[in-house]
Amino acid sequence: MKYIKENSIIDLALVQDEIEKMKRDELLQKHPYKIYQGKDGKWYTYLPDDEKGRILKKRNKKEDIESLVIQYWKEKETNPTINDIFTEWITDKVSREEISKSTKGRYERQYKQCFAEFGKQNIKSVSEYDIEDFLLNSISKHSLTRKGFSNLRTLIFGIFRLAKKKHYISYNITEIVNDIEISRKSFRKVIKDDDEQVFMFDEVPKITEYLEQNQDMLNLGILLLFKTGLRIGELTALKNCDIRGNVIHVNRTEICYEDDNGNRIYEVRDFPKTEAGIRDVVIPSNCRWILKRIKALNPFGEYVFMDNGERIRTYVFRNRLSTVCKHSNVKKKSPHKIRKTYGSILLDSGAVESLIVSQMGHTNIKTTKEYYYRNRRNADQIMSELDKVKAL
């Protein structure tokens, strides 16, 4: 290159000018809005805006409005906003299938809740103190639980790790977050009564009696939940080929997410919620009639639960359970509370821990005991149990 330059074989200044021109043209082509001349002779275009969506800009000359556009997109490339990086991070996650579309929706809802103002900042202007201040204020402002904060931290890690990889920042986000002192008292505690979390001893017979007396596809599906502890998404994704005698092979689940138009989409994913979710669930022999009855109602369908040739979605079962609770004079609860009830029944019965873990699709018994085990006795039943304790 030195020889070429010294012997004037090539004009490097001209080459540099061409490169700059190509870059300008590239940025102008990237601009999503039309550049046009108004009736007043001035030149107009829109620039993206976080609050308004877009904002109108005008200049006296075409080259001036083009320079404004180029300056805007150059800054976006070298100093994007937190919003820009979040969009890139989550888009990459989905394209690489590292997260599902339903998880993407959950992340976007969390982001919208907490990052409304913070997300507008350009990444290079965000200091380590700004991050700490944002996290601590978010806990208080949004009354976050420990789980809610954990979700927020996932977003922070994703955004700022990507920012460091792209050399927008130099600090380590993990060290910053781990160094923040947060009192346990800072988090909102969600305390729910046992009768909100599980179906009580006196409620299960009322529910199951109603379901058995009113046998249709939906009621039998809910009854199957009580007998197996399946997740509702696993239930609706079952295929007839998954059932062999008393054994139900669980290997897929339904997911729900919003498309670009805000419509809810329900799809079957060919793997369950967790790796441990792939399992064989055994139904008691005295309950096998439930499977036979369901099969009789839908003998040729691909999925176990179908109506007019279409797979029945989770929300249909949720709505039906609400109706069943009302007719049975039982406090309204979700299908997940049936799963918690099932886990509590297994633990109360003294079942072998390995069996409980297998049936529930958990990685260890600690998960079942910590998150699924609740007291199902009312005050009179507790008193009756205590009366049997001779030492009291």
Outline:
This protein is mainly alpha-helical and 392 residues long.
Write the H/E string, N to C.
HHEEEHHHHHHHHHHEEEEEHEEHHHHH
**Shape from CA axes?**
elongated
User: How are the strands of the largest sheet arranged?
Assistant: 1-2-3
Average predicted confidence as pLDDT: 90
Using only CA atoms, what is the Rg? 30 Å
Count the strands? 10
Query: Percent helix among the residues?
Result: 40-55%
Separation of the first and last Cα atoms: 95 Å
How much of the sequence lies in strands comes to: 5-15%
Largest beta-sheet characterization: 3 strands, antiparallel
Structural class by SSE content: mainly alpha
Distinct helical segment count: 18
Low-confidence stretches: none
The oligomeric state is: single chain
Description:
- The protein is mainly alpha-helical.
- 52% of the residues lie in helices and 11% in strands.
- The protein has a three-stranded antiparallel sheet with strand order 1-2-3.
- Helix 11 runs antiparallel to helix 13 and helix 11 packs parallel to helix 15 (335-348).
Give short descriptive properties of this protein.
elongated; 11% strand; mainly alpha; three-stranded antiparallel β-sheet; 392 residues; 52% helix
Which helices and strands, and how do they pair?
Blueprint: H1 2-6, H2 12-30, E1 36-37, E2 43-49, E3 53-59, H3 62-78, H4 82-95, H5 101-114, H6 128-141, H7 146-165, H8 173-179, H9 194-197, H10 203-213, H11 217-228, H12 232-236, E4 243-244, E5 247-250, E6 253-258, E7 264-269, E8 279-282, H13 288-297, E9 306-307, E10 310-311, H14 314-327, H15 335-348, H16 353-360, H17 365-371, H18 379-387
Antiparallel strand pairs: 1-2, 2-3, 4-5, 5-8, 6-7, 9-10
Helix pairs in contact: 2-3, 4-7, 11-13, 11-14, 11-15
